[in-house]
Design brief:
The complex is a heterodimer of chains A (about 300) and B (about 300).
Chain A: H1 2-13, H2 17-30, H3 33-60, H4 77-82, H5 86-118, H6 124-132, H7 139-157, H8 162-165, H9 175-199, H10 204-212, H11 217-228, H12 230-245, H13 249-254, H14 266-276, H15 280-311
Helix pairs in contact in A: 1-2, 5-9, 5-12, 7-9, 9-12, 12-15, 14-15
Chain B: H1 3-14, H2 19-27, H3 36-45, H4 47-60, H5 64-69, H6 82-90, H7 93-124, H8 129-140, H9 146-159, H10 165-189, H11 194-201, H12 206-217, H13 219-235, H14 238-243, H15 252-262, H16 267-287, H17 289-301
The chains are: A mainly alpha (about 300), B mainly alpha (about 300).
Chain lengths: ~300, ~300
């Protein structure tokens, strides 16, 4: 076994390309069969329950299948129709508006709270525990509590403000802000923990040196804290936006897409149209487009954010 | 050098100190004075977390008459406990709790047993084209949104007879694979390979090396993966919603959803039901708080 690991190590360090390739081939032959037995069942299961549904979805997106009965190939008709469908375009508009606002709010608020929780405060571990509570609550269930708050409590408490007095959830123009509130409320818990762990990687000596040089809190934040946690910032932004684009639970709990279809996200539309609207093929095409959109957005974000990271 | 005696000692050397404990020592330097402004601000902001929970409790303890008059935040007088009994019956709470518990425990157990094995095989052979291919294949799935799988998956699980609790366990185990392997592999590669070689010299097979040397060393990562899987499986709504067909198989979030649709004006009973659905994981969290937070931290940054 020792020789094997040595071969592995040398193969990664030196040798011409051809020799390395030859060695890799020899090693590949030598891999104990147990390793393959460890991996194959998982690969097969994953292919059967994850990749196969994806491929079936892509296949049916070129048909007019309603979810039952006979079907025919329709080529790219579903995809063309998607771009003419006002309801689909509105769902994308809502999802992006929601995701961008929620991502910004989540990251600003959680970074601020993480800074507070990282300061020398009383009962710090207790407060860290409190701020993480939303993470362990089902968002659908706590969402119903928020629904009561928005529709019954808030109108009575803020009866002087028209938007709140008339139940914000039934207001087509403002219902989305309530959904943002609920989603951010829950998402912050996880972001705070990630930022907090990022803040703890910064050595205290840096701040001491900075204060000796006369840098004040604001300057210290922009010159030390922010650059040093930028990797955590990238991860958080990408994950938040990806997660928020697929928003589902908070909408079901608060407005169920209403009033009308003003708070209908792409996921909710795919769910509704696909299961009860007889649009199986059409909404699968929508899901394929959604996948491409999410992948492009995520990769684009990574490139932009990582370039910014490198500047420091 | 036998594995049985060497493992515990080696384990402590191989593992980094538990972050929670290390953090406590580096944080609590007494050179800095308590920042009272930050403390006050953090305390005030935490009301945004505590007030909704308070609201859930007081509404659940009221009668409908008590609720109508106020904003919902007043403390009930007298306290009315009967909502819990009614919610217990109307949502068929014991069954929903049982279903959720079975799915969660099953998913956590299977996830820990399978993801770690796969990650081990991948981490130790990542230079081989086959294993590298598998690694990136699984990782790429992180980008695929659930809606794209959702519609075909429902057909598939129905045909295979997996539209039940067992099917949910299978799905959580498989769908968790991508992220879990990402979490496990980095950690496994930090475990010195000499530990395994020692066991192999003594004649242990690859499987035996894994279960007796590597798996015990993975305890911190097992905790992380276990917590993430537990919270996910317990609270998930969309997957049970589309996959489970039998009302008897309903999970807790699903029971609230159905319940809400049928009795949406009966707030006091509904809130008792919400509270009972939130309580189990909340109670577990209160008792294992620090452990949960440090576990999640490890999983998210490694």
């Amino acid at each position: 076994m020792t020789t094997l690991t040595q071969a592995v190590r040398t193969s990664s360090t030196g040798g011409t390309k051809r020799r390395r390739a030859a060695r890799v081939r020899v090693e590949a032959r030598r891999a104990p069969s147990a390793y393959y037995w460890m991996v194959w069942p998982a690969v097969i299961a994953f292919a059967a329950f994850h990749t196969l549904p994806v491929l079936i979805g892509v296949f049916f997106s070129f048909t007019n299948y309603a979810g039952y009965g006979a079907w025919n190939f329709v080529g790219f008709a579903n995809y063309v129709n998607l771009f003419r469908d006002d309801r689909v375009l509105a769902a994308y508009g809502f999802s992006f508006l929601f995701a961008i606002v929620a991502t910004i709010l989540t990251n600003v608020l959680s970074l601020a709270i993480a800074l507070g929780l990282n300061a020398k405060i009383r009962a710090r571990n207790f407060w860290r525990g409190v701020y993480f509570v939303p993470y362990v609550l089902a968002i659908l269930v706590i969402g119903y509590v928020f629904q009561f708050f928005f529709s019954n409590s808030l109108p009575k408490i803020l009866s002087g403000i028209p938007i709140f007095r008339d139940n914000i959830l039934t207001n087509p123009d403002w219902a989305w802000t309530a959904i943002v509130g609920l989603a951010v409320w829950q998402a912050c818990a996880f972001s705070i923990i990630i930022y907090l762990s990022g803040l703890q990687t910064i050595p205290a000596e840096l701040y001491e040196a900075a204060s000796l040089d006369g840098a004040r809190a604001g300057r210290q934040f922009w010159s030390i804290t922010f650059p040093l946690i930028s990797a955590f910032f990238t991860i958080n932004i990408v994950l938040s936006l990806k997660g928020f684009l697929q928003v589902f639970d908070p909408i079901v709990a608060l407005t169920n897409g209403g009033p009308g279809t003003s708070t209908e996200s792409v996921t909710l539309l795919i769910f509704r149209g696909g299961f009860s609207g007889g649009e199986f093929a059409y909404q699968t095409a929508n899901a394929v487009v959604f996948f491409i959109v999410i992948t492009v957005v995520s990769l684009f974000q990574f490139r932009v954010l990582q370039r910014r990271e490198a500047d420091f | 050098m036998t594995t049985a005696t060497s493992t515990p000692v080696q384990a402590e050397e191989a593992l980094p100190a538990i972050p929670a404990r290390r953090r406590r020592t580096s944080d609590d330097d007494d050179t800095r004075r308590t920042n009272w402004w930050a403390t006050a601000l953090i305390a005030v902001c935490s009301l945004t977390i505590l007030v909704p929970l308070y609201l859930a409790v007081v509404v659940a303890l009221k009668t409908p008459d008590q609720l109508v008059s106020g904003t919902g935040f007043e403390w009930p007088n007298p306290v009315n406990w009967s909502n819990f009994a009614e919610a217990w019956q109307r949502t068929n709470f014991p069954q929903a709790l049982m279903n959720t518990a079975i799915i969660t425990v099953g998913s956590v157990v299977f996830t820990l047993l399978t993801s770690s094995v796969v990650a081990y095989a991948l981490a130790r052979n990542i230079h081989r084209p086959f294993f590298k291919g598998v690694f990136f294949y699984l990782l790429a799935a992180l980008f695929i949104p659930f809606p794209i799988i959702m519609l075909p998956l429902v057909k598939q699980t129905a045909i295979l007879g997996l539209d039940n609790q067992a099917g949910m366990i299978v799905l959580y185990t498989i769908y968790g694979l991508s992220l879990n392997i990402f979490i496990y592999t980095a950690y496994i590669r930090s475990i010195p390979i000499e530990l395994e070689e020692a066991a192999r010299v003594d004649g242990a097979s690859t499987w035996r090396v894994f279960w007796q040397v590597i798996f015990p060393l993975l305890t911190p990562m097992n905790a992380t993966v276990g917590i993430l899987t537990c919270v996910w499986a317990w609270n998930d709504f969309i997957m049970p919603l589309v996959v489970l067909t039998d009302p008897a198989a309903r999970t807790l979030p699903l029971a609230q959803y159905v319940f809400q649709g049928q009795f949406n004006t009966d707030y006091t009973v509904a809130f008792a039901s919400y509270l009972m659905a939130m309580a189990p994981l909340l109670i577990v969290y209160i008792f294992s708080q620090r452990w949960v937070i440090s576990g999640v931290t490890r999983g998210s940054i490694k």
